Amino acid sequence: MHEQPVRTVQVPDDLHARAVTDTFRLLADPTRVKLLWALLHGEHSVGALAELVEAGPTAVSQHLSKLRLAGLVRTRREGTYVFYRAEDDHVRRLLTEALSHAEHATGTAGEGEPGQHRYRG
User: What is the extent of the structural domain holding 51?
Assistant: First the structure.
């Protein structure tokens, strides 16, 4: 016999559960996490991002394309340059919490400390 739940829990419907897993799947790449974090702090070109995340420009462009298609980053063209930025407050909060969790899970943040990856936009 199963225990009766103390209260009714409303679980996410399939549409929202899939949207969450799609976002997590997209963020399940260290380079994309680094790129998004950098873009949440300001606008950058592919070359500048490649330097920041220590990856080749071609790889960075491919990652940015995926992030752009998912609607997580926006572009602005200036002459022959394309600049990328992230403005989604939901993604900022999600990454901030995920990085804070990672700092605590790895022991690099002290108990009760916010950790170094707090958004300072």
Answer: 14-87
Distance CA 32, CA 63 (A): 6
Write out the two tokens for 10.
Answer: 């409303």
Sheet containing 74-78: order of strands: 44-45, 81-85, 74-78
**pLDDT tens digits, one per residue of 89-115:** 888 899 999 898 888 888 886 655 555
| Single-letter code of the amino acid located at 27 | L
pTM summary value: 0.81
Residue 44 lies in a domain: yes
Tokens 């990328």 sit on residue: 84
Residue in this structure with the two tokens 């969450």, named with its chain if needed: 20
Handedness of CA 14, 89, 24, 46 (dihedral sign): positive
